[in-house]
């Protein structure tokens, strides 16, 4: 995301981001914090950062005064609900109070608005329909009808228990997904992307569809460590799209090839998209099971894509590359290339040896930090580590809000029995 900030916002965002990254690493390694309490902290900071970095519309300027109110309300509502949650667990029990309804409603509205800002209106609209169905079930016909749920109980269940916003989806975002985002951000900074682009360039060589092959192969490599189609396009597309246009591909075709190639990164092991982690959590299976199941589909996807771009290149009569034309220059030394691969090896070893995804990625993060200090060139500075923290949180805004909103929908469906009805 790239926006025009008011003075003061970058420092606030940087401070919050570094704090959240440090908290996530501590909570998932040494901390003994209950999952739902970790979710409170994670969503609270995420919403504050979101309202300080994402404007209410795409062409708007990010203004500190205008965005400070929703950011402050996000923080206040999270703190108030956390206090109420502790009270529910220790003293007063499951009794909704007026303050719970007020702050819970504020949080739900802020979450829906935040989700709209980062992914558009459709998911928030779907969640609003789920809320309407939950509150006014007697209006619906036939088997869809159910007894209306009181608004205070709906808010209580979704904001003060583990069945709504704080459920499995957000837990996955706060643990597996966020740690892998941090890992990917570190790998990008220490030069793994440059190494992948160089390898892809050498593989595609002087073939007639070379630039398109480069887009496919480099996107496959990038997808192995990012799991994000958007990040894939931004990283590899800045090189491959101009190269394809230079070789004679029409601009829409060049963009389409890169977009399709980058989309496959979401299901290319070892680091896949958020859905893979959610699947592993809901199915109660190790992440490595999902990872192994994705190997063949990923190979088929990219294999068929290579065939498609080859046929398209013949149809468009694209000429082959000449000499080093289109070659991605790589100035990394041999020792650097070897060291950069080590964190990926550590991750794969951890996953394949039966360790959990969280433990494996924590080991891989530790290995990447160690590798950085051993690099003979391009060693990261302190400011680079700060940027890694900020980039990790910014990249996680979308998936965090989506998982929180999905939890709201799941909470509404389980409250009404609709989930059991659909399963039946």
Task: Give the SSE order as H and E letters.
Answer: HHHHHHHHHHHHHHHHH
Instruction: State the share of residues found in helices, binned by percent.
Output: over 70%
What amount of the residues lies in strands? under 5%
* Number of distinct helices: 17
Q: What is the CA–CA distance across the termini?
A: 42 Å
Query: What radius of gyration results from the CA coordinates?
Result: 23 Å
Instruction: Output mean pLDDT.
Output: 82
Question: Which consecutive residue ranges, at least 5 long each, have pLDDT under 50?
Answer: 1-7, 322-326
Give the class from helix and strand content and strand pairing. mainly alpha
List the helices and strands and how they pair.
Blueprint: H1 9-27, H2 35-53, H3 64-90, H4 98-119, H5 122-135, H6 151-159, H7 168-190, H8 192-204, H9 210-226, H10 229-246, H11 251-263, H12 274-283, H13 287-316, H14 334-352, H15 357-374, H16 382-416, H17 418-423
Helix pairs in contact: 1-2, 1-16, 2-3, 2-16, 3-4, 4-5, 4-6, 4-16, 5-16, 7-12, 7-15, 7-16, 8-9, 9-10, 9-11, 9-13, 10-11, 12-13, 14-15
Would you summarize the structure shown here?
This protein has 424 residues and is mainly α. It has helices spanning 9-27, 35-53, 64-90, 98-119, 122-135, 151-159, 168-190, 192-204, 210-226, 229-246, 251-263, 274-283, 287-316, 334-352, 357-374, 382-416, 418-423.
Structural features, described:
The protein is mainly alpha-helical and 424 residues long. It contains 17 helices and no strands. The radius of gyration is 23 Å and the shape is globular.
């Amino acid at each position: 995301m790239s926006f025009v900030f008011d003075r003061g916002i970058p420092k606030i965002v940087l401070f919050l981001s570094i704090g959240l990254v440090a908290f996530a690493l501590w909570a998932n390694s040494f901390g003994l914090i209950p999952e739902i309490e970790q979710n409170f902290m994670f969503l609270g900071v995420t919403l504050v950062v979101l309202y300080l970095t994402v404007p209410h519309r795409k062409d708007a300027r990010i203004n500190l005064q205008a965005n400070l109110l929703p950011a402050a309300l996000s923080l206040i509502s999270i703190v108030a609900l956390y206090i109420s949650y502790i009270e529910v667990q220790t003293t007063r029990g499951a009794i909704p109070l007026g303050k719970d309804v007020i702050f819970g409603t504020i949080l739900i509205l802020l979450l829906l608005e935040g989700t709209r800002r980062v992914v558009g209106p459709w998911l928030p609209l779907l969640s609003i329909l789920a809320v309407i169905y939950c509150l006014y079930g007697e209006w619906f016909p036939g088997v869809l009808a159910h007894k209306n749920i009181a608004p205070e109980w709906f808010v209580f269940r979704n904001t003060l228990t583990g069945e709504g916003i704080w459920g499995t989806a957000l837990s996955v975002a706060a643990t597996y997904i966020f740690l892998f985002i941090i890992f990917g951000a570190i790998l990008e900074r220490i030069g793994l992307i440059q190494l992948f682009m160089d390898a892809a360039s050498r593989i595609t060589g002087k073939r007639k569809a070379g630039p398109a092959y480069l887009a496919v192969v480099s996107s496959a490599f990038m997808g192995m460590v990012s799991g994000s189609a958007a990040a894939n396009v931004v990283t590899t597309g800045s090189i491959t799209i101009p190269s394809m246009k230079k070789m004679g591909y029409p601009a829409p075709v060049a963009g389409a090839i890169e977009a399709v190639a980058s989309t496959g990164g979401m299901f290319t092991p070892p680091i896949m998209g958020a859905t893979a982690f959610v699947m592993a959590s809901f199915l109660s299976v190790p992440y490595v099971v999902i990872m192994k199941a994705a190997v063949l589909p990923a190979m088929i996807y990219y294999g068929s894509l290579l065939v498609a771009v080859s046929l398209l290149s013949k149809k468009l009569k694209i000429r082959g590359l000449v000499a080093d034309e289109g070659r991605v220059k790589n100035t990394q030394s041999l020792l650097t290339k070897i060291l950069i691969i080590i964190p990926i090896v550590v991750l794969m070893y951890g996953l394949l040896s039966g360790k959990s995804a969280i433990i494996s990625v924590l080991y891989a993060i530790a290995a990447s930090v160690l590798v950085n200090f051993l690099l003979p060139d391009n060693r990261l500075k302190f400011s680079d580590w700060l940027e890694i923290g900020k980039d990790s949180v910014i990249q996680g805004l979308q998936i965090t809000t989506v998982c929180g909103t999905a939890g709201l929908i799941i909470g509404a469906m389980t409250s009404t029995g609709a989930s059991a009805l659909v399963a039946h």
